[in-house]
Design goal:
Layout lengths: L2 E3 L13 E2 L11 H10 L8 H15 L6 E4 L2 H13 L4 E6 L4 H8 L3 E6 L8 H7 L4 E7 L11 H11 L5 E4 L15 H5 L4 E6 L12 E4 L2 H10 L8 H12 L1 H24 L11 E5 L4 H10 L2 E2 L1 E5 L2 E7 L3 H15 L1
Parallel strand pairs: 2-11, 4-5, 4-6, 6-7, 7-8
Antiparallel strand pairs: 1-12, 3-9, 8-9, 10-13, 12-13
Helix pairs in contact: 1-9, 2-9, 3-4, 10-12
Bound molecules: pyridoxal-5'-phosphate.
Organism: Portibacter lacus
Protein name: Histidinol-phosphate aminotransferase
GO molecular function: pyridoxal phosphate binding; transaminase activity
């Protein structure tokens, strides 16, 4: 199973980083519209944000092509990954998910003594959907898919995932984490929300943390069958973790399409710069369809992280299939140049 080298020994050094490329944040956010909305709404902080939550839900429902009862908001999608995790794994069981993948819901499941049935990704980094299907058994409480996947940055073609969900969701709930959907190539950018409209028990998560640049403001949502959301709400309250300024920021962000297209374009520019630079160093990076890149490094993750942090460049390191990898998030072009400079020194 893959291993992530912890950044924790360097946590105190994160604020001093010159290039902060370790959490797949969007360096351009929040949008000007979101910032203004936050300032304007501070004085409403004495009120609960029920009305604003409803307004945001209605906007998201229109965007996703569902009715409002298909949407649940949360302070970031992490909160909803946890809520779905808590409500599905209270009695243990198992979760079927790829290896490697994003660990949030798997860790929640494991804390309730559920087993992670880890299915290795294929050599080309695509999900092995046949093996995942075969791993499902009587004890499976949920199947988790993250597309594009984290930490690999790769995708499994949308049509294959659609077919998988269509079949599997009749037996078990399928959670599809679409945190990075907007960064995918347009022809691959197909959300699984359409399956919910077909009555399938698929739970799709989206976030304002990535393309909208609001990681610290905390808004995310899931789209699912009303019956699934009712079950979750029966056990945990949904809207009470939301704050009124974040809701206003999300509403303003949704209206600001230029900010989104600008972020996507700048991300693509940095991604292409880093890929070219890595190629010129003969490093075979993993093809990315998102806002970060994974590539192999010829040294252990632990000393690699230390040396990069010493140069004030924050990244992450993983051990996957006996190979060390660096995961670098796309920052500004200035940060990416600093990153390349540091990498060349450390690898040399
Ligand atoms: N899902 C994936 C795949 C992520 O990479 C992240 C954050 O990095 C999240 C969910 C959680 O994001 P947030 O809680 O900020 O919405």
């Amino acid at each position: 199973r893959f291993l992530e080298w912890e950044n924790s020994p360097y946590k105190d050094r994160i604020p001093a980083l010159k290039a902060r490329l370790l959490a797949n944040e969007n360096p351009y956010g929040p949008s000007e519209a979101a910032k203004e909305a936050i300032i304007d709404s501070v004085s409403m902080g004495n009120r609960y944000g029920h009305k604003q939550a409803q307004e945001l839900i209605e906007m998201l429902a229109a965007k996703e092509g569902v009715t409002p009862d298909h949407i649940m908001l949360g302070p970031g999608s992490s909160d909803l990954l946890e809520k779905v995790g808590i409500t599905h794994f209270l009695e243990g069981g198992n979760i079927v998910a790829a290896d490697p993948t994003y660990m949030s819901i798997i860790n929640t499941a494991k804390s309730f003594n559920a087993e992670w049935k880890a299915v290795k990704v294929k050599e080309n980094w695509e999900y092995d959907l046949d093996a995942m299907k075969a791993a499902i058994d009587d004890k499976t409480k949920l199947v988790y898919i993250c597309n594009p996947n984290n930490p690999t940055a790769t995708i499994t073609p949308a049509d294959k995932i659609w077919k998988f969900c269509e079949e599997v969701a009749d037996k078990k709930p399928v959670f599809v984490d679409e945190a990075y959907l907007e960064f995918m190539e347009p022809e691959e950018q197909k959300s699984m929300v359409g399956l919910v409209n077909k009555g399938k028990n698929v739970i799709i998560s989206r976030t304002f943390s990535k393309v909208y640049g609001m990681a610290g403001i905390r808004v995310g949502y899931i789209v699912a069958l009303p019956s699934t959301l009712e079950k979750i709400e029966h056990m945990v309250r949904s809207n009470m973790g939301l704050n009124i300024t974040a809701l206003h920021a999300a509403i303003a962000s949704l209206k600001d399409e230029n900010f989104v297209s600008d972020s996507i374009a700048k991300n693509a520019e940095c991604r292409s710069y880093v890929c070219d630079e890595l190629s010129s160093m003969n490093i075979k990076y993993v093809p990315s369809q998102t806002s970060f890149i994974l590539f192999p490094i010829a040294m252990d993750g632990k000393p690699f992280l230390k040396e990069m942090f010493d140069l004030q460049v924050g990244v992450r390191a993983f051990q996957i299939f006996d190979q060390s990898y660096c995961r670098v998030s796309m920052g500004t072009m200035t940060e990416m140049k600093m990153f390349m400079e540091a990498l060349k020194k450390v690898i040399a």
